Amino acid sequence: MQSKKKRILGIVAALLLMLAAPMNGMSADQKVYKLKFSWNDIWGPKFRASQIYRPGGEMERMLYERSGGRIQLEIIPRMFPSGDMFTAVAKGKADMGDIAMPWLSGTYPIWNWGEIPGIVNEDPVKGLAEELAVYQDPEVMKIYDKTLKKFGLKFWFVTQWDPANGIWSNRNITTLEDLKGMKVRVGGYLPTQGIKELGASPVTIAGSELAPAMMAGTIDGVLTSLGYGYSIGLGKVSKYFTLTPLSPTWTAVTLMNAKSFEALPEDLQKVVMDVGRELQQMVSLSTTAEYVMSLDTVDLSGVKRTRLEAGDAEQIAQAAAAVEKEWLNVEGPWKEERPALLKAVKNAVQNYRDFTGK
User: Fold this and answer.
1) What is the pLDDT of residues 4-43, one digit of tens each?
2) 168, 296 contact by CB (below 8 A)
3) What 3-state DSSP class applies to 42?
4) Which residues contact 126 (CB under 8 A, 6 or more apart)?
5) Fewest beta carbons less than 10 Å away: which of 58, 184, 318, 349?
6) Are 114 and 348 in contact (CB under 8 A)?
7) What are the strands of the beta sheet with 33-39, ordered from one edge?
8) What's the CA gap between 81 and 72, in Å, rounded?
9) Can you tell me the distance from the alpha carbon of 341 to that of 324, in angstroms, rounded to the nearest whole number?
């Protein structure tokens, strides 16, 4: 009888211990972690992909729900100028932020490989899928983690925008000869090098002034995306949109301050990274869909879409190689890591193509 009683007491004690322990890897720590998110908010509601960041949007809601309310965001639109966001998050002035990497290409070129022509397909639908595969590649992510760690940052997820690889103009550009002598507004360090290699002259003008500058003849063309160009009125002052291999990606990378990330318990760190992977996939699909819808909008506006003829392929490849060489050799942080990253990126794209057969 005594032995039976002991067994029962032992079972009860074991059950109590099980109930007291965290279930399914859940942390016993029920502390609420309030994180400050600096939202670039440069596009407004016209691009659905940007709206994942809005207060009450998918990012905030998913973190809150998956953490059982233990991760709460304070989202501050335009907390810092776009060019200052990287440093602000690195210094802990914000815990998180979406940083448009092409704007930092002259300062931190290693993370701007996406603007090198010829790596991903110039067709945005194919290029977006290939670029996403790169950011899902373990070897690429190892280099990102290593290089960002130096600045006290943690990679969270990538936000793919409509690729900025088309020239809005009033000239029917089908050959490189057509580009010669044109004054083309270009945004970013590498596309500027690329447009020079293709024979045109790069011009710098603020985005808000592009349509008036086209109308006045101050510039002959604008290298930017289909959706953004149409949204700022380029469809009203242009006859053509010519797809080029230049600037085949335009990407924001959402980063966390490394100390803010490491201060989270392990289970919440996993929540953050899992949500990031889902948001990354969500944005890629949204941006692809928006691009496809933009095609119809631009076609209905009367703007004719063209692309460079295959006869110039060799010269275009030479221009791409020149831009790649510039990227490899320009001075800046982690210059010695760029060859390894470029190799990993190209391998990831090739693996994707081998899998899909495209």
Assistant:
1) 555 554 554 454 444 444 444 444 568 999 999 999 887 7
2) no
3) coil
4) 120, 358
5) 318
6) no
7) 71-77, 33-39, 96-100, 250-257, 153-161
8) 24
9) 12
Distance CA 100, CA 86 (A): 9
**Distance separating alpha carbons of residues 1 and 7, to the nearest angstrom:** 10
pLDDT, one tens digit per residue, over 326-347 is 999 998 889 999 999 999 999 9
CATH 3.40.190.170 intervals, the chain = 31-161+249-292, 166-248+305-356
Task: Tell the CATH superfamily of the 166-248+305-356 domain.
Answer: Bacterial extracellular solute-binding protein, family 7 (3.40.190.170)
CATH topology of domain 31-161+249-292: D-Maltodextrin-Binding Protein; domain 2 (3.40.190)
Which residue is listed with tokens 């930092």?
104
Confidence of residue 46 (pLDDT cuts 50, 70, 90): low
Cβ atoms of 149 and 138 within 8 Å: the answer is no
At 19 the pLDDT is 42
**Least confident piece of the model among 35-44, 119-128, 275-284:** 35-44
Predicted TM-score (pTM) above 0.85: yes
Taking phi over 0 as left and psi of -120 to 50 as alpha, with beta for the rest, 247 belongs to left
Q: Any idea how long the chain is?
A: 358
For residue 103, what are its two tokens? Answer: 């704007």
**pLDDT reported for residue 18:** 45
| Residue 120 and residue 349 in contact, taking contact as beta carbons nearer than 8 Å | yes
Nearest-angstrom CA–CA distance, 176 and 75: 46
Handedness of CA 58, 275, 128, 317 (dihedral sign): positive
Out of 162-166, 233-237, 258-262, least confident range: 162-166
